[in-house]
Structures are given as structure tokens and as C-alpha cells.
Write a structure and sequence with these properties.
The complex is a heterodimer of chains A (488) and B (402). Chain A has helices at 11-20, 74-79, 100-109, 113-133, 158-179, 185-206, 209-217, 226-245, 249-256, 265-273, 283-291, 294-312, 330-336, 353-366, 407-420, 439-445, 455-464; strands at residues 22-26, 31-33, 41-47, 50-56, 59-66, 71-72, 86-89, 93-99, 319-323, 344-350, 372-376, 393-398, 421-432, 471-475, 480-486. With 488 residues, chain A is an alpha/beta fold. With 402 residues, chain B is mainly alpha-helical. The longest helix of chain B has 22 residues, at 173-194.
Chain lengths: 488, 402
């Protein structure tokens, strides 16, 4: 099989090369190329899959996967330098290997081959570079918005200002009482939760359509659209409540978006940990409130539901499961802790190298690292067609990924998932529901605008994809949706 | 149910608010087909400009507008095509405009003083508020009955600015206020169109050409007719000048030329067509009109003032009933008060004053000065030092038959 990227080689060139090549057979975990060694060979994958594995401080992360028709060893070959990654078989694989001396001999004897081969290798490298540069930042990434210039002072409803002032004064009073130890802890927690709930209710009330239209009309010559006025009202609540809300460790972390999006692996780990923390008298109490909000409850509940669904699919035979946007790999590690996970082979894909390294470390501690491949990369196929390669999977799932994807990216992901699943394989994905009670809190106070979808819209996405449909159910008290689709 | 389905004019789907077409056709013939599209048409020049301003940083649009208004479009560096297009229309003075006639029309209005304000409050606005769709922009804000007094005062100020000598000259205050109101209408149109609750099929576009035309008639022929009923007299030249003034005001506010009436006869015909093709007043119309009738109650501080305000409200109700007729007054649920009989001595008094004004040299000029001062004083009291902002659509509604 002539590699697709060596397009410039003629059939005769390829015949001459394969005549001199040796075929190497590998079983799972067989090393085709060792990081740090000088191999001076060109290798072509004939069948099976191999992982490109790099060592990160003693932990192994898969940075790519190679399948039939792909080339490896070309960088070492061209640079005459040690390999920068290991190539390890994912399962039974066959590789065609051509040593340097045979290549040199062919290059000097076949007219034009040198030009064709080196140009083909240049195309291969350029292709790889392009793939490395595309991190999918358009699909997943920071959603931070500018917070000024949306509405004028006159457009802020007087009732809003009055309500927010009342909430702030209430919180200040609680803080004073806590300092002077005049308020029992449970009573303080309830009072803070009440005040924070009131913030959400205020957002809900003052971003209603008729309130926004009324506010817009309060200063017509500011020429602000309804959405701008709505954002201005949100920005006002944001500014006024910032100091209190940011005392919560989780709210603060979510707002900071340390890895470019709000629920990175440490945030998710904190949600699963469910242990309030924060600064000052109010911080831990605000944190406690936030941990119980539908958003956090949905993350925990959906993870449990998905883990249960995956566990129900485990049989006696080998099972391959891939988790996309895996983060802390919570579900996979939970699954591997369950009884019938002996033949489970899991792949955890994430863009965040630190998330995967932390999960790999945890897997080492739990003694299940041999079951997991930690693959660095973007699960969402790029618009130019670049995508991850996986061996056929029994299940592919993601919790908390689809809300970051627009419809086009979501469709590309669904189609890609469909291709990676074997017949009968299941796709399990969640998406924050249109009725998520925390949507306004997310948008205006955490500065995180995501794609909330209705059950109909989520179902429609699957209908438009290669799956042709899915069973979508409301989960986590209506804050989340869970879709289950099967490849026919 | 009308046998004539609204919606065939130039392939345009007309809104459900355009009703009673069979009846209207018997009186107005094919005009019902030419007027219908005006319910679906906004103000393309102003609409395009507010769309551009919406994309500008906060305050940027207002700054450009004020620069162009106060110093001319030439003073704006690289004006956006939408701004240039609007000011090309505004700066173009139609051949029919006669500035001496504008001043005469304005002086007639100013001379009327408090009577003019009564005509606005008890005829022009109640007729406008009688349109169920016309009041929708106010219903949308959820503050239908609040701010009735403020709306009345801002309307009064708009009229006063328009009528002052030279008010509609290029850099006159009336000209600038009219353009600001035009852009406010466009912005309201934009805000309401963005609302999922706005039902275009039922209501057409917000503040359409048809409603602008109705409002324009409210200030011209409705006021003239109403004041005649309480004893005011206008020469043919004066009433023509009033019509001329509001025709040019209509041009500046974005009214299509074919809807800006040049004569009272035209205006009466158009007013009749509008009245015939609109639905009867609904509960919102009633609430809004009653809030307007009760504005003086909000100003009363002491029990004595409240008692006097109550009597004044009764008088206003009676006057409104007298101006708009019993049929419309009943539809707007205006009470039948005994104080309506006070109108007869008022009418006699007005007629006597008008006779004197016409006969005694110099009295007309004095009446204009005193009337203008009365307008100015009532505005000062009404605004309480707060500059009019024209926050809500002052005249969003279509008016009924004068």
C-alpha cells in the first residue's frame, strides 16, 4: 500500500522500494521506534495502528496515532538525529521498513527518484506541521467577553440597582455577623445561599425581554440593541457582585478559565470533590452554594449516569472505549475501578497536556495505567479535514463538551465519532440544556457563553449526522441533556 | 370578517391590523390598496443609520449624529454612507417649502397657548391612543400608564420647538428635535423587531409609515378642527400655513411624500381611511387614555389641590368627549361628566376673544407673545428643570378620524 502522502512517487518507484524493504510485525505495545534512538529508516504502516508516544517526566502521553498508509521515522532519517517520540503498536500491526543504505542506493540509480521522494517527504512534514498547528481553538477555547459599552446609566432599570444594592447590603451584614461570631454557621450558609440565589433571580428578572426593551427605550439615542442592553445589565450585576462571588474558590477558578475554558480538569475535579473552599468569611459559603447549583450537580450527575451506561456495556470480551475532552478522566477511572473492567482498553483524549499527565499519575496510583492510553489532541475534527485516528471503538463519550461546540463543529465531531465506532458501537454525549437554571449566571457572571441546546436541537444534530438520530433524555434535574446513539 | 383579504398590494403581505376593508373600500375605493403597504414600511434611511450606529461603540452614534445636526454633515470626517444618505435627504429642501408660511403656521399654534395644549392632550393624543396596535410599543415596555405626564410634556415640547420662529430651519431646534425623534422611532422599530414578542403578521412593522402619517394629521388637521369646535377661528391662509408646517415636519421625520398631506381636505380623507381600517380600542387603549386624562392628579400635592385636580380631570374628560365624539369616547370608556357643560361658556369666551383679536390691531401679535409664553411656562413647570429626553415614542400610534 503506497502511502497517500507520497503522492509524487510513481508505482515503479514504490515497487522498487518495497522490493528492498523488510516487513516487521508487531503485537500490542511492540515498539517500532524508540524515542532517543537513531533509526535511519523510513517506515510505512501497512496495517494496524501505532501510537506516537512521548515521555513527559516519566509519564507516557500519546500525541498521535498512525494508521495504514502513514509514514514514520522520516524526521530522524532527514535530520540524522535521534527520534523525538516512540512508535508503539496499538495492537497487531505491520510495518514496511526501508533502511538508509537501500534508499541511498535507489536514489543514485533511479533517475528523478531523489526529487520525488524528498518532495513527498516535505509534503508529509508540512501536513504534520499543519495538523500540529491546528489546536481546534475555534471550536473550543476562551469565550471571555468585553464588559463595557453595552448600556448607558439611564438604561439600567432602577429596580435592578435597588435589588442589587439590597443583596450587597445583606451579604455585608452576614459578613459582619460572622466576624463578630453572631451568626451560627448553618444559618450563615443558608443566608449566603439565599443572597446568591437572589443574584441569579435578579439576572433572570432583569434580562427578560420586556425589561430589556424597556431599558433600551430609556435611552434611545444610545443606539444599543436589545442584546447589548441585556449584556449591559449582566455586566452591571457582574461588577457589583464580583468581589463576593470571586471569594469562592470554584467560582473564581471557573471565571479565570485557566486553560482557556471554564471547566478544565481541575475545576471538574473540584466539582467532583464537592468540598467548599474560598477566601474570607463568605468565600467558602459562596463556594458551598455554587457546588450545589444545578450546573455543578449536572456535571456530577451526568458523569455518574454515563459511567453507569458504559459499565452496563462491559462484557467478557475486550472493550475499547474513548473519552473525549477527558480532563480529569473521572469516568474512565471510575469505570476501571468497577468489577468487570479487566479487558477494558480506554483512550482519554484531551487538549490539555497537564490534565492528561495528572490523570496518568492518578491511573498509576490506582494501578490501572496499562488499560489507558492518554492521547494529547483535539477530539474535534478540524475544518480542513484533519482528525484523530482511533482503532475501532465500542463506545465514545464526552461529558461537558458539546456546549462548547457550534453546530458545524458538533456535526463534524458526530460524523468522526460515527467513523471511529465499530458496528453496534455507542456514542454518549451530554450538552447543557436550554433550561439550565444557571445559564445566565454562566453567561453574565462567569463570562462563559456556551451553546445551551434544547432536546429538539440536540436530537436534530444527531439526525443530521451519520448517526441519523439519537435518544436524548433530560438529565440532572433538567440542567443537562444526555444523548445515546448507536452506529448501525 | 372582511371579504377583501389584506395582503395583495405589490405582493406584500399586509398585517391583520388592517381591517374593515370592505367598508373602507366603499368609501375610499382603490386607495385602500395603495395605503396598505404603508403599514409594512418603516423609514429606510433612519433604519439603516440606527443599524450602523448599533455597531459603533457606546456614544459613538450619538456623537456623529449631534456633530452632523449641529455643524453639518460636511463637518463629519468620512461619514458612513447611511449617515450621509440621511443628511442628504434632510438637507434637501423640497421646492414646495415656504419658510414664511412655516413661521405663520407656527405663530398660529403659539397664539393658541393653553388651548393648543388642550387640543393636543384632549384630541390629538386620545385619538392616537385609540389605535390598539399604535399603543403596542408602549405596552411592550410594561409601563403603559406610567409616564403619561412625561409623554404629554415631551409631546408639547416637540410641538413648541417645531412652532417657534425658524424652528424648522436647518439649524433650528425644531429641526434637530424632529431628526432626533425620527431616529428614536427608528431605534424603537429596531428594538421591537428584535423582540420575539413582536408579531409582524398581526401588527406590521413597528411605527410604520401609516402611523407616522396618522400622527402627522394629529398635529395638523385634528388640532385645527378641535379648536374650531371651541370657538377658535383661522383664516384660510392660517390653516394652510398650519398644514404646511406639519407637512414639512412630516418630511423631516421621514414620512413618505405621498402620505404628507398638503391640504385639510386631503388630511381629512386620509384620517377617515385610517380610522375605518383600524380595530376598535382595546383595554390598553382605555388604560393609556385614562392615564392621560388623570395626569393632573399626579401633580396635586395637597388635599385642596387634589380636589381641584379631580374637577379638572372631569373637565378634561368632557372636553375630550366633545373633541373626539361620543362614539370614540364611549369606546375609550371616558366618563360622561356634567362639567362638559362648562364647555359652552368657554366656547363663548373663546369666540369673543377671537373676535377682538381679529378686530383690534396689535392684539394678534400680543396673543402670539402671550401664547408662546404660556407654552414655555407650562413646559418649564412640566419638565421641572429636567431636559426632555423623548424617551418613549411620543406619537407612536395611528390616529383616528378627526
Amino acid at each position: 500500500m503506497k502511502p497517500e502522502l507520497l503522492v509524487l512517487l510513481t508505482d515503479e518507484d514504490w515497487r522498487l522500494m518495497t522490493e528492498r524493504a523488510t516487513i516487521r510485525h508487531f503485537e500490542k505495545d511492540g515498539v517500532a521506534l524508540q524515542e532517543g534512538t537513531e533509526s535511519r529508516t523510513l517506515n510505512f504502516v501497512q496495517s494496524g495502528y501505532l501510537q506516537v508516544v512521548r515521555d513527559f517526566h516519566g509519564l507516557q502521553l500519546t500525541v498521535a496515532r498512525l494508521g495504514p498508509g502513514e509514514v514514520f521515522g522520516e524526521m530522524s532519517f532527514l535530520e540524522r538525529a535521534p527520534a523525538i517520540a516512540s512508535i508503539v503498536a496499538d495492537g497487531p500491526a505491520e510495518v514496511l521498513t526501508l533502511p538508509e543504505q537501500d534508499i541511498e542506493s535507489l536514489l543514485s540509480s533511479v533517475p528523478g527518484l531523489a526529487l520525488r521522494l524528498y518532495q513527498s517527504l516535505a509534503i508529509t512534514l508540512s501536513h504534520r506541521l499543519r495538523r500540529a498547528g491546528d489546536t481546534g481553538a475555534d471550536s473550543i477555547g476562551s469565550t471571555r467577553m468585553a464588559r463595557t459599552g453595552f448600556a448607558t446609566e439611564r438604561q439600567l432599570p432602577p429596580g435592578l440597582i435597588q435589588t442589587v444594592d439590597g443583596i450587597k447590603q445583606g451579604l455585608q451584614q452576614i459578613e459582619r455577623q460572622l466576624r463578630s461570631r453572631n451568626l451560627p454557621a448553618e444559618q450563615a450558609a443558608a443566608a449566603v445561599a439565599g443572597a446568591c440565589d437572589a443574584v441569579c433571580a435578579t439576572l433572570e428578572r432583569f434580562t427578560q425581554d420586556e425589561v430589556v426593551v424597556d431599558a433600551g427605550m430609556a435611552d434611545l439615542l444610545s443606539f444599543r440593541d436589545s442584546e447589548a442592553v441585556r449584556a449591559g445589565i449582566g455586566a452591571y450585576v457582574f461588577r457589583e457582585t464580583f468581589s463576593v462571588l470571586m471569594a469562592s474558590a470554584l467560582v473564581s477558578r471557573t471565571f479565570a478559565m485557566p486553560r482557556g475554558f471554564p471547566d478544565d480538569w481541575e475545576t471538574i475535579a473540584a466539582i467532583h470533590g464537592n468540598e467548599p473552599a474560598g477566601d474570607g468569611q463568605l468565600g467558602p459559603l459562596v463556594d458551598r452554594w455554587f457546588l450545589q447549583r444545578p450546573l455543578c450537580a449536572a456535571r456530577r450527575s451526568s458523569a455518574t449516569t454515563v459511567t453507569g451506561l458504559l459499565a452496563s456495556g462491559l462484557g467478557d470480551g475486550p472493550v475499547a472505549i474513548t473519552c473525549l475532552a477527558a480532563g480529569s478522566c473521572h469516568e474512565i477511572l471510575e469505570l476501571l475501578g468497577s468489577a468487570r473492567s479487566g479487558k477494558l482498553s480506554a483512550t482519554c483524549v484531551d487538549l490539555d497536556e497537564r490534565a492528561l499527565l495528572a490523570a496518568a499519575e492518578r491511573a498509576e496510583d490506582l494501578g490501572c495505567s496499562e488499560h489507558i492510553t492518554f492521547q494529547l489532541g483535539n477530539a474535534v475534527p478540524a475544518e480542513n479535514g484533519e482528525q484523530l485516528l482511533l482503532p475501532p471503538q465500542h463506545a465514545i463519550f464526552a461529558v461537558g463538551l458539546f456546549e462548547y461546540l457550534g453546530d458545524d463543529a458538533a456535526l463534524r465531531l458526530l460524523d468522526w465519532t460515527h467513523r471511529q465506532l465499530q458496528s453496534g458501537g455507542r456514542a454518549i454525549f451530554t450538552n447543557l440544556a436550554a433550561g439550565n437554571p444557571d445559564s445566565l449566571f454562566m453567561e453574565y457572571l462567569l463570562e462563559c457563553k456556551v451553546h445551551h441546546r434544547s432536546a429538539e436541537a440536540f436530537t436534530e444534530l444527531f439526525r443530521r449526522s451519520s448517526f441519523g438520530g439519537a435518544t436524548v433524555t433530560a438529565a440532572a434535574g433538567g440542567a443537562d441533556l444526555l444523548a445515546l446513539a448507536t452506529r448501525a | 370578517m372582511s371579504a377583501i383579504a389584506p395582503g395583495t398590494s405589490a405582493g406584500l403581505q399586509l398585517p391583520a391590523r388592517y381591517t374593515n376593508l370592505d367598508h373602507a373600500k366603499s368609501a375610499h375605493g382603490s386607495r385602500i390598496h395603495t395605503f396598505g403597504p404603508a403599514l409594512m414600511q418603516g423609514d429606510p434611511l433612519a433604519d439603516a443609520l440606527v443599524e450602523y450606529f448599533a455597531s459603533r461603540p457606546l456614544g459613538g452614534g450619538r456623537k456623529q449624529l449631534e456633530q452632523a445636526l449641529n455643524h453639518g454633515i460636511e463637518s463629519v470626517r468620512n461619514p458612513h454612507p447611511t449617515l450621509a444618505a440621511l443628511f442628504a435627504q434632510l438637507d434637501h429642501i423640497p421646492v414646495w417649502v415656504d419658510f414664511a408660511q412655516l413661521d405663520l403656521g407656527g405663530s398660529v399654534y403659539l397664539r393658541l397657548g393653553p388651548l393648543g395644549q388642550l387640543a393636543l392632550g384632549c384630541a390629538a393624543l386620545p385619538l392616537a391612543y385609540g389605535s390598539p396596535v399604535g399603543v403596542v410599543p408602549l405596552v411592550f415596555t410594561g409601563r403603559l400608564t406610567q409616564r403619561a405626564f412625561r409623554r404629554l410634556i415631551e409631546t408639547t415640547q416637540f410641538v413648541f420647538m417645531t412652532c417657534k420662529p425658524g424652528g424648522l430651519l436647518r439649524y433650528g431646534e425644531g429641526f434637530k428635535t424632529t431628526v432626533r425623534v425620527r431616529l428614536m422611532h427608528a431605534q424603537i422599530r429596531r428594538l421591537l423587531r428584535q423582540s420575539p414578542k413582536w408579531d409582524t403578521q398581526a401588527w406590521g412593522v413597528p411605527i410604520p409609515q401609516a402611523d407616522l402619517a396618522g400622527t402627522n394629521l394629529s398635529f395638523s388637521v385634528v388640532v385645527l378642527e378641535s379648536l374650531r369646535r371651541i370657538g377658535c377661528s383661522f383664516s384660510a391662509r392660517e390653516s394652510e400655513a398650519v398644514m404646511h408646517l406639519w407637512r414639512y415636519s412630516g418630511y423631516l421625520i421621514g414620512l413618505e411624500p405621498q402620505l404628507a398631506c398638503a391640504t385639510e381636505a386631503e388630511a381629512l380623507r386620509l384620517g377617515d381611511l385610517i380610522a375605518m381600517t383600524q380595530a376598535p380600542p382595546n383595554a390598553d387603549c382605555v388604560a393609556l387614555t385614562q392615564a392621560l386624562m388623570n395626569v393632573t392628579m399626579h401633580m396635586a400635592q395637597t388635599p385642596a389641590q387634589r380636589k381641584m385636580a379631580q374637577q379638572w380631570c372631569k373637565f378634561l374628560n368632557g372636553l375630550t368627549r366633545y373633541f373626539i365624539g361620543h362614539e370614540r369616547a364611549d369606546a375609550l370608556q371616558l366618563p360622561m361628566t356634567r362639567l362638559r357643560y362648562a364647555l359652552y361658556p368657554v366656547r363663548l369666551g373663546v369666540m369673543a376673544c377671537e373676535t377682538l383679536r381679529r378686530l383690534v390691531p396689535g392684539l394678534n401679535g400680543l396673543a402670539i407673545r402671550l401664547g408662546a409664553r404660556a407654552w414655555s411656562t407650562s413646559l418649564e413647570i412640566g419638565l421641572s428643570g429636567v431636559k426632555a429626553t423623548f424617551e418613549l415614542p411620543e406619537h407612536p400610534a395611528a390616529r383616528s378620524n378627526p
